[in-house]
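Let us work through a complete example step by step.
Step 1: write down the sequence.
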Amino acid sequence: MSEWHFLTLKEAELEFIDGDRGVNYPKKAELLPKGDCVFLNTGNVRQNSFDFSNLDFITKEKDNLLRNGKLQRDDIVLTTRGTVGNVALYSQVVPFSNIRINSGMVIIRVNKNFWHPYFVYLFFQSHLFKKQISRLISGSAQPQLPISILETVSIPRLTLDEQKEIIFNIKSIDQKIQINNQINQELESMAKTLYDYWFVQFDFPDQNGKPYKSSGGKMVYNPELKREIPEGWGVEKLKDKLSVSRGISYKTENIKDNIGTPMINLASIDINRNYKSTGLKYFNGEYLKEKIVSGGDLLIACTDLTRNADIVGSPIIVPFDEQKYVFSMDLAKIDSKVDFINKYYLYSTLRTEHYHNYIKKWASGTNVLHLNLDGMNWYSISVPPIELQEEYSQIILNFSKKTNKNIQENQELTQLRDWLLPMLMNGQMKVE
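Step 2: predict the structure and record it as tokens.
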């Protein structure tokens, strides 16, 4: 393997299978929280794995009407619209046996006489692939990579034995990355469950450590929220309770690859409204100290490129590390101006579907949605005792720190893999 040999993906005879785009394509009203067949959206495909934390399903009848886009084991799924280049392998460990893709992605099916599915999956994660598609992606408002263009990408031609050797040396790294991702998904789920249990069901620990409402805690009707809340809780509109500041307005010449101050921007928020470390840009220019953020600061998205306002208004917490960050004008920094609303309790409240369904109504635009921040002023929240907020916030902070640690470790592991993979493909290194 001393010399590179390349094939285009078309010459490699990889099969590309699009999702069904016909008259039977599921409408939004036909997507269900449970059903016979998983209907993947682009948010279910992360950088190198599936994310099944928020799934849509279709009925068996709808599944039978669709022609294309049905997954088989060992298929590779690649996102080709919106967030382009995320990839996942439909291996035997995936817990769903009936899955279809939507129109924002493509299935890659390999001929196993020539290609190992995991090797091809590794290739689609590699810089070898990412660098090529960066020049091929079209569309500014809605980036996309058509199959006809994707087929022009080149892949190293290696024997099956050579592919298997590379897999052996890389897989342990990928497995650790996957474990970290699973842990983070579980932490996110635990945080949502705790918020729901304490602040929606009102079964927070009472003075005896028992669930408040279930143990007979007194509830009173609040006309503003149009529901019962625990006795003694307040209700406040966010008007005049928050300090809101927009980030840096920048030009293309101010951005350089990995040189400058890391800037959190719209690409730092994924479609599931989570922080994404790979979305950082690097700002080379002057900025005010008010545009600096550090670990634990709260930011929200003020713009959105998705069609369904998936991201606009969404909050993220700045990673807990030693790094100094700035933030772009697509985001706003949020601080509580009052001592009876904890910032991290506020963060969790702004992550609820109730808030998101409210705030996205304040966004307007054709290709790019822009949020009118005045909308936050009129959102009403329940205000638990500050001691309860702080108890909850400490738990959330611990979750966030663990999540950030795993994200940082994954970045380092990904860099190692991305350095190691081409060395192995080129025969320059052999790891025992």
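Step 3: interpret the result. The mean pLDDT is 90.
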